[in-house]
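Minutes, project huddle
Topic: does the predicted pose make sense with MGD bound?
PN asked that the exact inputs be recorded in the minutes so nobody has to dig through chat later. Recorded below.
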Amino acid sequence: MAGKPPTGDPVQDAPDVTAPQHAAAGLPAIAHTLRIAQQQMGVRRTALTLLKVNQKDGFDCPGCAWPEPDKRHAAEFCENGAKAVAEEATLRRVTPAFFAAHPVAQLADRSGYWLGQQGRLTEPMYLAEGAEHYEPVSWERAFDIVAEELTALTSPDEAVFYTSGRTSNEAAFLYQLFAREYGTNNLPDCSNMCHESSGSALTETIGIGKGSVLLEDLHKADLIIVAGQNPGTNHPRMLSALEKAKTGGARIITVNPLPEAGLERFKNPQNARGLAGGGTALTDLFLQIRLGGDQALFRLLNKLVLDTDGAVDTDFVREHTHGFEEFARAARAADWDETLRATGLPREDIEAALRMVLASRRTVVCWAMGLTQHKHAVPTIKEVVNFLLLRGNIGRPGAGVCPVRGHSNVQGDRTMGIFERPAPAFLDALEKEFGFAPPREHGLDVVRAIRALRDGAAKVFFAMGGNFVAATPDTDVTEAAIRRARLTVHVSTKLNRSHVITGARALILPTLGRTERDRQASGDQFVTVEDSMGMVHASRGRLEPAGPRLLSEPAIVCRLARRVLGDGSKTPWEAFERDYAAIRDRIARVIPGFEDFNTRVAEPGGFTLPHAPRDSRRFPTTTGKANFTAAAVEYPRVPEGRLLLQTLRSHDQYNTTIYGLDDRYRGIKNGRRVVLLHPDDARDLDLADGAYADLVSEWTDGSERRAPGFRVVHYPTARGCAAAYYPETNVLVPLDHTADTSNTPASKSVVIRIERPHDAPAQDPSPGNR
Ligand SMILES: Nc1nc2c(c(=O)[nH]1)N[C@H]1C(S)=C(S)[C@@H](COP(=O)(O)OP(=O)(O)OC[C@H]3O[C@@H](n4cnc5c(=O)[nH]c(N)nc54)[C@H](O)[C@@H]3O)O[C@H]1N2
Ligand SMILES: Nc1nc2c(c(=O)[nH]1)N[C@H]1C(S)=C(S)[C@@H](COP(=O)(O)OP(=O)(O)OC[C@H]3O[C@@H](n4cnc5c(=O)[nH]c(N)nc54)[C@H](O)[C@@H]3O)O[C@H]1N2
Ligand SMILES: [Mo]
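Predicted holo structure (tokens), as shared on screen:
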């Protein structure tokens, strides 16, 4: 019922399993959307709110970073965007009475799902050292507490300022400015766990860490390869773009260990064929690859292209690239047998893929976490770049690299300077504009921040959004690390596990969400965001804020900065809080591509940021050309009797926010503690469908980690590869198991054994991670 949270902990993990589906969206998606939205918001608010999602005068969907088409539908959102909106626009409230009734230790025993279902945070809350309950606190006192702890540090580098990817450009710019004026580059963000590998690989090879395609490029492509991505669940509006591409004659190759329903067939709820008919078949060729086999696959395809007369775009290679000879030598050495072993693919499939590659003049490769969260993620993505460069598929219409971002403004936050390794030119510009000397030493990323907290080298942890302890790897290690902090602070919309696993002192600072009206002294404000394709546009909330005491993210940063930096700061924090246009004027002066920001963002639909490779085939790399690279081919080697586990998302979650316990397309209902295994692997391990077992990860230092009580599901995944949901399985991912160069946790390749089949779910010792 709208407005009423569940009372007892509703998580009765008792999964029901039916056959996986073969199509996404359609009528069931609409029914499901309305049910979840109305539970949280009621009927009237559901209608009013959903009609403003992604409209030119509305707010940017807080779901994913997929761009909006220029010609919009009345309902320009998807099932999962609507769930993200409902989660934020819920009528449920977490009040001081709630905190008085629940000691923190008791909340730490609740599931993440239960915590999230309690509703929106309404008051600043403070947990004093040794106290059992959070208590209401004034904003002034809250800022005093942060200032006390920050000024007590020996060095500003003992503080860590984390950002999740929903934060607006304006808030992100102010937040990094504050952290740097205070004196540190310790600005880890969710990107460190997400597309960092894409950024690392693309910066080195094409000179800019962002994708090179616009929405219309997808529509124009001859061939789209979707590797390591599940758009049916995580970027549902991308299915409309794929459908449009297919209508224009494109072909689609899907590379994935799992047959994902959304990529098989799309029933577009916006047309009659989708609603009543059979929808559109999307995938033409499904390469059911083993986890981590993608680098080997693309390397062999590159060899085969090199071996085909006339297949290489020699003009492009000569004029625009560097390193071709060394790359070609490495690629020619690619070996069929080794590739078949690494990928688990039949030879005919790779030959079929090659024919489609050679038939295409315009190729786009899209990817997400299936490529970025591996030890060899960076060389894998560099091999994708080699693949596109060979046939001149960068910087021409209908072709390019398309890393599909996660959080709705994760790309914009980076553009605004949320990065622990800022470019010197960016720091120079800050210095010139604001007249202070920003720190030059690199700061801590997510994994290094956890180590610093664990080792006592970091003492204050401040988070602008997100759910750090639940999203990060090695749950037990991370929670212990956070508990060592002097102070943990969270600027949040909803209650989550990071509020109840705390340092000695803790603060929860409640903030406005995207959907809400943001009024400041100069009047109603809007904020801006950048989507996955470099489009910047305005976002205006319309709903009344969840409570009268919420502050916007920019206001929180401005007040905190004034309190912490005092008269020493020449930055006009008060003026920034009063009128966000003043922030945008400064962004315009500091960040290239934002000239005339206020004028251009006033245009309906906003503007596109420049991208040298896309716009003019210029490559701002160290060589001044697009770089071919020749890394050694790697793929995971899994010992006898072990499996490789990927940790992924269900259909009813947004990262650590659990909307419900179903994963409709995969046929899982009413439970999340499931492990998907190939029936032949399960048979070899004597694991019947429906049995319960523990997942035990084995790390190279001999240590083991256990996640108990998973229901075995026989599922058509690739051989040797298991899948289970995150965040429940984060406990299995060793902190040191990260991608080379990008340091992203390798959450898609965890070596596990499956132990002790039993008939009933075991007691989970870490209930917070359900
Ligand atoms: N509804 C909803 N939307 C979301 C999110 C959400 O949680 N819920 N999260 C947002 C965020 S932050 C992000 S980053 C994105 C995530 O979007 P995705 O990357 O689609 O998310 P995952 O669930 O991690 O799915 C990984 C996909 O890659 C495949 N895969 C795994 N390993 C490999 C591999 O080695 N090779 C290949 N070829 N495929 C592999 C998996 O089978 C799966 O299909 O979605 C964003 N959008
Ligand atoms: N094992 C494993 N681990 C993973 C992944 C994986 O695939 N496998 N994926 C990784 C990826 S791709 C990512 S991006 C990270 C996600 O890591 P995070 O971004 O840290 O986590 P979220 O679950 O997205 O954060 C949700 C919380 O954000 C807060 N919030 C929501 N909206 C707003 C807002 O507008 N403002 C503010 N201030 N707060 C808000 C709410 O309080 C909510 O509880 O997880 C990573 N962890
Ligand atoms: Mo992400």
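Observations noted during the meeting:
- Confidence is low (pLDDT under 50) at residues 765-770.
- The radius of gyration is 25 Å.
No decisions taken; revisit at the next huddle.
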